[in-house]
Design brief:
The complex is a heterodimer. By secondary structure, chain A is an alpha/beta fold. In chain A, about 50% of the residues lie in helices and about 15% in strands. The longest helix of chain A has 16 residues, at about 80-95. The two termini of chain A are about 25 Å apart. Chain B is about 50% helix and about 30% strand. Chain B has 8 helices and 8 strands. In chain B, helix 1 (about 5-30) packs across helix 6 (about 110-135) and helix 1 packs across helix 8 (about 190-210). Classes of the chains: A alpha/beta, B alpha+beta.
Chain lengths: ~90, ~210
């Protein structure tokens, strides 16, 4: 399932309680950081992967505080998708 | 506005930043990208009419694609990635792996989904460059949602289009994707304070180098 912004993402999260969330940071309505923060308040265990064009070192450091599974810089490539799938499968088995 | 040493150092830094942006573009189009060393200028807006003389391929009257991103708060401005509309189609096709018949006008027209692709290309490339300026200046930058526009620019409108800030940092470069040259310009419109901050940082780096 997909959401087009952070507000929709929060609604979907409440309705579906997904095992994994892949989220951008820069989004309309509610940004990714705010969305992740609100999800983490309710659920420290949902696995979250951040996919973003933001290359700043400070962004990585801030997002670490939210205990995300992975932080991936765009563009997304076949190689990165392979790594992501492996990560998700390891997470499933864990 | 910049002396020779400042311009040289800024060009060196921009060369690295654009190189990294080009590496990302290469991943998107799945082709090697060859690019020339960017020409870097810091232009005061009253001189911006020079842009159309210096970069006629991009700034001559006609259609351009402008992908843009605002950033701030401490280092504040707006970054634009600008291509002539016809070359934008080459970029989109390279990303989506579509063939383009240069003799077929129909296939050269941009469609709705092309704008989504161009918006994301702009988002990735501009983030790659502006983010590094943020790290250089040791400030945290926040961004606006990226925008994409197809603009018909008449000679008179060029000034209005650019007329939001006083200073413009201009990087002109040509990306060569599979022997197709895509000429683009990256403009970073900066406030006077942001220009001062950048020049101060460059001077600090020069002092460290020559101390």
């Amino acid at each position: 399932m997909a959401a087009s912004n952070g507000a929709e993402g929060l609604v979907l999260y409440e309705q579906q309680k997904p095992d994994y969330i892949i989220s951008d940071l820069l989004m309309p309505e509610i940004n990714g950081r705010e969305m992740v923060a609100r999800i983490r308040e309710k659920d420290p265990d949902t696995k979250i992967i951040i996919l973003t064009a933001d290359v700043q070192k400070t962004t990585r450091e801030i997002i670490k505080d939210y205990n995300v599974l992975s932080f991936i810089n765009k563009p997304i490539t076949a190689e990165k998708i392979d790594c992501l799938v492996k990560l998700l499968e390891e997470g499933k088995d864990a | 506005m910049l002396n020779e040493l400042q311009k040289d150092l800024l060009t060196e830094l921009v060369n690295v930043y654009i190189g990294q942006a080009a590496a990302m573009l290469s991943e998107m189009v799945n082709h090697p990208i060859v690019l020339n060393i960017p020409e870097v200028e810091l232009v005061k807006l009253t001189n911006s009419e020079r842009l159309s003389q210096t970069y006629p391929g991009v700034f001559s009257p006609g259609h351009i694609i402008s992908s843009s991103l605002k950033f701030g708060p401490d280092f504040r401005g707006k970054a634009f990635l600008i291509f002539p509309a016809q070359q934008a189609k080459i970029l989109v096709n390279a990303c989506t792996d579509e063939m383009m018949d240069i003799n077929d006008i129909e296939t050269q027209n941009l469609i709705d989904t092309d704008f989504d692709v161009l918006k994301e290309i702009g988002n990735i490339i501009l983030n790659a460059i502006i983010g590094q300026f943020g790290d250089l200046l040791e400030v945290r930058l926040e961004y606006s949602i990226p925008e994409i526009e197809l603009i018909h620019v008449s000679a008179a409108e060029q000034q209005i289009f650019l007329q939001q800030h006083l200073y413009m940092l201009v990087f002109h470069t040509v990306f060569n994707i599979s022997e197709m040259a895509v000429e683009g310009v990256i403009l970073i419109a900066l406030t006077m304070n942001s220009v001062s901050e950048l020049i101060n940082k460059i001077d600090d780096l020069l002092e460290e180098t020559y101390a």
